Amino acid sequence: MNTNVVTLTLNPAIDQSVAVPGFAAGTVNRVLWEQSDPGGKGVNVASFLADLGHAASGTVTVSGLLGRDNAGEFEQLFKSKGIADEFVRIPGKTRVNVKIIDETTQAITDLNFPGCAASAADLARLERRIDSLLPEHDWFVLSGSTPAGVANDYYARLIQRLNAAGKRVLLDSSGEPLRQGIAATPWAIKPNIAELEELVGTPLPDTAAVIAAARGLLAQGLGCVVVSMGGEGALFVSADACLHAQPPHIEVKSTVGAGDAMVAGFIAGQLRGLSLADSARLATASALGALTQLGPRLPAAEVIASFMQQVTVRTANV
Known about the structure:
37% of the residues lie in helices and 25% in strands. The protein is an alpha/beta fold.
């Protein structure tokens, strides 16, 4: 299996972070600073993989649906990081998502806009583009929500095609696209607690309940379930192991892309042939790195290495 990775983003976004000290609804608020970054979950994963050095040892390719009218910001990012651009351009503008950051209370308010609607012709062009990537890419990361015009079973049907072609697929979505995607048995998924609770239809009040839910998904044919749990770290559950990665306390500057950084770190660990425990360390360290930055980017490699040493990984068989 080669180490070339495709990340698929059907609903990308430009992430605009604005700092508003003492933010309050219904009043005039003043912006202290703002920053805009081309993103979307799969775009972020590709960017983080490049930051982790994977673009030097394997190909990182982005694909999906991208609004033609403001594609320039994305194109500049891909060029600067050595990421291959295989996005299908569609009419209109890619959406803008706004994060309002109140640094005085550490509260973050998200305003997520809908994306461009996709036509049947757009999706047919995307299918042909994905087919063209199959010969040279063995790893596929399917990330994020689906825009208008894309059926809830889109990921499921794509996973079936990729599985039939012998590809390794990680799915990171939510709601019905995640539920139907799991039925097609991707290799791995990475829900957070809220997404996992929605998926299994019951509250998960403690680690034992989360592990039981993850093992239930493994029984459906998945190879690995990674559950991000915020400040509590993450669980990495496979048929052979159940590991809890606990991060050190850090000062959070922005949550933009932290979950995507965890996906990128986990994939990078697997591509490097690391054990599940060391992949968990790299995934958690990558998420920590994203939390210390403004926007979807990682600190220097030595900082990630330092975070890896501070992540505690223990067996969590309860």
